[in-house]
Write a structure and sequence with these properties.
The structure is a single chain. The protein is mainly alpha-helical. Among the domains are: 277-532, no CATH class; 556-716, Four Helix Bundle (Hemerythrin (Met), subunit A) (Up-down Bundle); 718-771, no CATH class. The chain contains 34 helices and two strands. A hairpin with a 4-residue loop joins β1 and β2. α11 (206-220) runs parallel beside α15 and α13 (238-247) runs antiparallel to α17 (319-350). The two termini are 52 Å apart.
């Protein structure tokens, strides 16, 4: 069972170790990076025989034993399918990247790829929803690093920030959905949640749960209206686009929908929400793809369209829809991954991705043209290729939905329209680039790249052909267990190239012939598409995003100018006023003005003298005329506080206070000569009254809090618990030390982390100052 954990940890460990390779080995860092995904793929294959028989595997680690929180991992048909895709395509992407033109920071590039791979494997293998959410957010962070890899380019920075913001907002929605699910079921384990499926659907929180889960999935899978981040993510290196944005990351949202389908489907709300968004995304993505001249942008929008198709199929909620969606998910990873890699080759040899500057490349790039033709025609749904079979299943599933009502006929028609548009942009990629008249400057200068660079897209294109001709074996071994884990066992006809003249065959013929005719005989329309005005609401979401970010920046600048004016008195006044209003007033109101019995000791004469000296020292600091006098007086106040702790039998606090005062005194003396001269500030009577009122309010708040804490009028004291349990649970007699190290250990660790981050920030500022 520990193999499940190893599959996740190997890429994460590789991402840490790769940058530490000695310089003598960094020339082959791409080959070293192949080891983790290669081993993960082989380990995943070992589960294939058992999973194909219907078995599942669980592995549980204790996380917070006292709270009963565990981290659990799960391999079933769906998670194994994704694990094979993530690790298998990861091997091909890293192999391709070894030949790709990334000359600078290669160890960092491969480390980021492995980091992302480990996060994605964590998402698909997690059985606990909290662990799934942690890995979900790690995919956003790692994709941000990969998209912004060329961080000196403005487009890369813009795309990375955009993707992080949108996917992180989706992550918040997912977290809200997880919390609501726990509220309804009392569990965070996916297998246990399946037992509460009916209770979830009958709950009054079901609409909120459904909305949160769908928003989280749509943001990650670039569904309308969150699709705007994916095209800008194409600023990343081509291997990143091929891996994240066609085969893995954008599939995470689809995985989430598939995983929650047994829990949330079976209602009209599920069908209309998921299928409606999917169909709209399919059409919007296809229309936008037709307007693109940049080949990567065209592939990006076509990815959006294909993801919408898969989302719509899962939204149907039927066994046929799940089968079609899962099969097309696998097929899309193959043909779209190949197309991205092949576009990278075209850009590498031709120096451009603009299809207006390309044409007739088949003469100089026969192998590249052949592979591109297989992948593009598979995307179009041409017979004998894998896309044809999954499109047939799509049509069949849409026809099954006719029983939903009189408006259900729209689904098959939209399916044909979306497929027809797919044929057009698939021909733009293949025919428009490789046939016709070649540009003069490229006519005799092109040749296919090395066999090593062509190997990865050739394997993916070969999968398109193999699955199109012999689909049954792979479906029975890999896809059928995945479908069964989502929709349960169901009997269906095995996949084959030909099932006779049926409705789906007719729909497929209409899409293929209609798309080819529009491409071949509607040239003016094709040429006009890129210059069509932006009128659809979906097409202006980019502008809304930009305006929203600009407004957010302006708001931030206004608040910074208001709150951080550089005037210390103003900053302190705001800080203390917020403290009084947000904490003091509600707390005192809750106390009701009534104090319980106070357990106050008598004040000894020496304590009264010490407190009087403290008060005099505090006043002296405010009245000091010279910086040195103020610093020395402030240090004296700190020493008196240390003495007070000693008298109150708190030597630990006294020692801590003494160390803090000593350090502060040294720091003040180091910067003393840079401090401006002290001077009395002229204040109006209103200003004096305002400052006096704030000072009295803060002092009064502290006094009231101390009295309330002593009287135990709000909450019972837990001091007795610490006195009784310090030795038993913490193994120490010093209660203060035990509280700080054991009972509040995570809080102390958080404080240390904050100090460490601050130290790193100071160090970075010093480095920048020197630079």
């Amino acid at each position: 069972m520990a193999l499940i954990l190893l599959i996740i940890l190997l890429p994460l460990l590789g991402s840490v170790l790769l940058p530490l390779l000695p310089r003598s080995l960094r020339g082959h860092v791409g080959r070293w990076a192949l080891l983790p995904p290669g081993v993960c793929f082989l380990l995943s294959l070992t589960y294939l025989p058992a999973i194909s028989r219907g078995d599942t595997f669980h592995y549980t680690l204790s996380w917070f034993p006292t709270l009963g929180i565990q981290v659990s991992f799960w391999i079933d048909g769906l998670s194994l399918l994704f694990a094979l895709l993530i690790s298998g395509i990861g091997v091909l992407i890293i192999w391709y990247s070894h030949y790709y033109s990334i000359e600078e920071h290669r160890p960092r590039f491969f480390a980021y790829l492995l980091f992302f791979m480990g996060a994605m494997l964590g998402v698909v293998l997690s059985s606990n929803l909290i662990a799934l959410f942690v890995f979900w957010e790690l995919t956003s962070i790692s994709s941000f690093l990969l998209i912004g890899f060329w961080h000196t380019q403005e487009a890369a920075v813009y795309g990375a920030r955009k993707s992080l913001l949108i996917t992180s907002l989706g992550g918040f929605a997912l977290l809200a959905g997880i919390v609501l699910l726990y509220e309804v079921t009392g569990t965070l384990e996916l297998p246990e949640l399946a037992q509460h499926a009916e209770a979830i659907r009958m709950s009054s929180l079901y609409p909120a749960i459904l909305g949160c889960i769908v928003i989280g999935a749509c943001a990650k899978s670039a569904q309308f209206p969150f699709h705007i981040w994916l095209p800008n993510a194409m600023a990343a290196p081509t291997p990143v686009s091929a891996y994240l944005h066609s085969a893995t990351m954008v599939k995470a949202g689809l995985f989430l929908i598939a995983r929650f389908l047994p829990l949330l489907s079976g209602t009209q709300a599920w069908m209309y929400a998921v299928s409606g968004i999917g169909m709209l995304t399919m059409l919007v993505g296809a229309a936008l793809a037709l307007q693109q001249y940049d080949l990567k942008a065209l592939l990006a929008y076509s990815t959006i369209s294909q993801l919408g198709l898969i989302m719509a199929l899962y939204g149907f909620g039927t066994a046929g829809g799940v089968r079609a969606a899962t099969f097309h998910l696998f097929n899309h990873a193959a043909f779209k991954g190949a197309l991205f890699l092949l576009v990278g080759i075209i850009e590498h040899v031709a120096g451009t991705r603009d299809r207006r500057a390309l044409g007739g490349l088949a003469r100089g790039l026969p192998v590249t043209a052949t592979l591109t033709g297989i992948a593009a025609l598979a995307m179009a749904g041409v017979p004998l290729l894998n896309g044809f079979l999954s499109k047939e299943l799509f049509y069949e599933a849409s026809l099954e939905m006719l029983v939903w009502g009189r408006w259900a006929w729209v689904l098959p028609e939209l399916a044909v329209v979306g497929s027809l548009l797919t044929v057009i942009y698939a021909l733009q990629i293949f025919h428009g680039v490789f046939f016709g008249q070649a540009p003069k400057e490229l006519a005799n200068a092109l040749h296919d790249p090395s066999a090593g660079m062509l190997l990865a897209p050739a394997i993916l294109a070969g999968m398109c052909l193999l699955m199109g001709v012999f689909p049954a074996p792979l479906e029975a071994l890999v896809l059928a267990p995945a479908v069964s884990s989502i929709a349960g066992q169901d009997a269906w006809q095995p996949l084959a190239i030909w099932h006779g003249f049926t409705g789906p065959v007719l729909m497929s013929a209409v899409a293929l012939v209609g798309g080819a005719c529009l491409y071949g005989y509607a040239r003016p329309l094709r040429q006009a598409m890129p210059s069509m005005p932006v009128r659809w609401p979906g097409l202006s979401i980019d502008a809304l995003y930009d305006r929203g970010m600009a407004a957010l920046d302006r708001t931030g600048l206004f608040l910074m100018g208001f709150l951080q004016s550089g005037y210390l008195r103003w900053s302190l006044m705001l800080l203390l006023s917020v403290l009084i209003l947000s904490f003091g007033v509600p707390f005192i109101a809750k106390a009701g003005g009534a104090l319980g019995p106070l357990d106050l000791g008598s004040v000894e004469p020496f304590e009264a003298v010490l407190i009087a000296l403290l008060m005099a020292g505090a006043v002296a600091v405010a009245w000091a005329r010279q910086p040195l006098m103020a610093v020395l007086t402030l240090g004296l106040v700190g020493l008196l506080v240390s003495l007070l702790f000693v008298l109150l039998q708190a030597p630990d606090l006294a020692l801590t206070q003494l160390l803090i005062e000593t350090t502060s005194l040294i720091l003040f003396l180091l910067v003393l000569r840079f401090l401006p001269p002290f001077g009395r500030e002229a204040l109006s009577r209103w200003g004096r009254c305002r400052d006096l009122g704030i000072a009295i309010a803060v002092g009064g708040l502290v006094v009231v809090l101390l009295l309330v804490a002593n009287s135990e009028s709000l909450y019972p004291s837990i001091a007795h618990y610490f006195l009784e349990q310090s030795l038993t649970l913490g193994g120490g007699r010093n209660m203060v030390n035990v509280i700080v190290v054991d009972f509040r250990g995570y809080d102390t660790m958080g404080e240390i982390t904050v100090l460490s981050i601050a130290a790193i920030g100071v160090y970075a500022l010093i480095k920048l100052k020197r630079g």
